[in-house]
Amino acid sequence: MQDASQKGFTLIELLAAVAVLSVLVMIAVPSYQKYIRDARLNHVRAVLLQNAHFMERFYQQRRSFKQTSTTWPALPYAETEHFCIRPQGNARGAHDGKFTLKAVAFDKSGEPRVIKINESLITVICESSDSACSDNDSFFAGGAKVDQQCKVFQ
After folding, report:
1. CATH number, domain at 33?
2. Where do the TM regions start and end (predicted)?
3. Among 9, 11, 88, 142, whose CB has the most other CB atoms within 10 angstroms?
């Protein structure tokens, strides 16, 4: 029989509370991580859109999306906190009336997806890509084969 002056929780009650909290944490953490990843993608999408508008203004002034026949113009926003942004493909040989801008995560193990926008402002997300951020590259090399499982970003 318990004395009325003793108050508190039993060991079983504490273990049950810890178990319930553990289950809640196991559910909440992945949801929060997905929320953070999606927020980062939406932010970089907005930055890509700003860069695409810059490219359109550049085209109106020069009648080409290229700075020269072999180079793209410098983008006003070349990166965010989590992504680098570059044109897709070499400007040499690219069609004057087309461009694609691509954002690739600095940490590809944490975010393997890439997001792209073209001159028609169509945004595409790809589940994986061979592209990687590099300080000495002014564009992402490779064509459509470097990005896999792409679909229009909603």
Report:
1. 3.30.700.50
2. 12-32
3. 88
First to last CA, the chain: 64
Calculate the average pLDDT of the chain: 88
Q: Is residue 104 part of a domain?
A: yes
Of 136 and 77, the one with more pLDDT: 77
CA distance 95 to 122: 17
95: left (phi over 0), alpha (psi -120 to 50) or beta: beta
Give the count of domains, the chain: 1
**Strand spans (E) along the chain:** 83-87, 100-105, 114-118, 123-129, 147-152
- Nearest residue to 84 (alpha-carbon basis) of 101, 72, 109: 101
Count of beta carbons in the 10 Å neighbourhood of residue 136? 4
